[in-house]
Design brief:
By secondary structure, the protein is mainly α. Helix content is 79%, strand content 1%. The chain has 2 domains: 182 residues, Up-down Bundle (Growth Hormone, Chain: A), CATH 1.20.1250.20; 196 residues, MFS general substrate transporter like domains (Growth Hormone, Chain: A). The radius of gyration is 20 Å and the shape is globular.
């Protein structure tokens, strides 16, 4: 670790005295966030567009889509804990290298078997570098600047969500799935080298031995459960919106481009909002309870508007409002987790919180789809809006009422 950098033993952050971490230090972590978002969404969009051409039935298509998320749900807590034990940097680099190798599998053949193996391998690799990257951002930024840097990190992931389907479609058109997988192999390999060169080594901190009862208490504290609930709600809304807003647009007789533009507009509004929300949090202008409650309320309002008044104009308005809500909720949720978690178990906490996001990512579309099948799409969106509204009330009330966990030693009380 370079001489100007020192470790604050109390907070576990690594920074120069009186300064913020440099862009050179954090940029490779932003690239890692972009890689996982780009990889997940570009392949998902490509499978949907090319399913008929490569002989995918609906069941096989669903399995291929689910493999990435299944791997993440199972492995993220394990790799998050591993990053606490051996350091975030080796876990991030190994995960990115694994992502590149898994992507190379997809260049060999476009059969369902090879695509499934590639997607499963990518999900396992992303399970390593995603929570470790979040933990590294938290430690490098420190509690006082966590909002700003998680906002930027989330913004780069949002760019992956926006550009993944667009660039993926162009690559598949130009060279089929091999071209798409080659691009992901190159992107992740470059990110791995960048992290290895530019990211400082974060010292492994001593970890006390926890009993099962202590682990259970840590996992059920409000300071963990409430932001994880908020992140799950935001991610669930994003997952549902990506699938069902274009479907609603088609039902409103919009052409394909106009329907897909709704998703791009939502992701763009989220991408632009996240850094602003993070900076407001760090400056004391937006608290975590109020911000997460506001963000979830905006998501609920946007979905509720479509449920009550499904029109082309309200479709675009809803996309912008939901995007703003996601952009407010996400960095504040991660920043609150970072500021209330001792640095020695930051990776484990981030990995566990990512499970909540993955559950939301799967649960949001399932809720909307199940209710829509039994009643209507408007009813499905309205049900999800109601559930997110309840989460908004809980986020604002439970954290404001009484902090669930004291701050880590040396951190100011919140």
């Amino acid at each position: 670790m370079s001489a100007p950098l020192r470790r604050n033993a109390a907070a576990g952050a690594v920074s120069a005295p009186g300064t913020s971490p440099s862009a050179r230090t954090l940029a490779p972590l932003y690239a890692a966030g972009f890689t996982t978002a780009f990889g997940a969404h570009s392949i998902a969009a490509g499978l949907g567009a090319e399913s008929g051409g490569i002989g995918l039935g609906l069941l096989t298509f669903g399995v291929l889509l689910a493999l990435y998320d299944v791997a993440e749900v199972v492995l993220k807590p394990l790799f998050g804990s591993l990053s606490d034990r051996i350091g975030a940097k080796p876990v991030i680099v190994a995960g990115l290298v694994g992502f590149a190798l898994a992507s190379l599998l997809g260049t060999t053949s476009a059969t369902p078997l090879m695509l499934g193996l590639a997607r499963l391998g990518q999900g396992a690799a992303a399970s390593a570098f995603s929570p470790a990257s979040s933990a590294a951002v938290a430690r490098l930024a420190g509690p006082a600047a966590a909002g700003r840097y998680f906002g930027r990190y989330g913004s780069w992931k949002g760019m992956g969500y926006v550009l993944g389907p667009l660039i993926g479609a162009g690559l598949i058109w130009a060279g089929g799935f091999p071209a798409l997988f080659w691009s992901m192999a190159v992107i992740s390999a470059v990110a791995a080298v960048w992290v290895w060169i530019a990211m400082p080594w974060l010292p492994v901190l001593p970890r006390p031995r926890y009993t099962v009862a202590e682990l259970l208490r840590q996992s059920t504290r409000r300071s963990f459960l409430v932001p994880t609930l908020a992140l799950a709600g935001a991610t669930g809304a994003l997952g549902a919106a990506v699938g069902f807003l274009p479907l609603l647009g088609s039902g409103l007789h919009l052409n394909l481009f106009a329907s897909m533009a709704v998703v791009a507009l939502l992701a763009l509004s989220s991408t632009l909002t996240q850094p602003l929300a993070g900076r407001m949090r760090d400056r004391g202008r937006l608290s975590a309870p109020r911000g997460m409650g506001l963000g979830l309320a905006m998501i609920a309002a946007g979905l509720g508007l479509l449920a009550v008044l499904p029109l082309p104009a309200t479709l675009y308005v809803s996309a912008v409002v939901v995007g703003f809500g996601i952009g407010i909720t996400t960095p504040l949720g991660f920043a609150h987790l970072a500021s209330t978690t001792p640095a020695e178990r930051m990776g484990r906490t981030m990995g566990a919180a990512e499970i909540g996001r993955e559950v939301g990512d799967a649960g949001g579309p399932l809720i909307v789809g199940a209710v829509a099948t039994a009643a209507s799409l408007a009813a499905g969106l309205g049900t999800l809006a109601l559930l997110i509204a309840v989460a908004a009330v809980l986020s604002g009330f439970l954290l404001r009422r009484r902090p669930a966990e004291p701050p880590a030693p040396g951190q100011p009380a919140r």
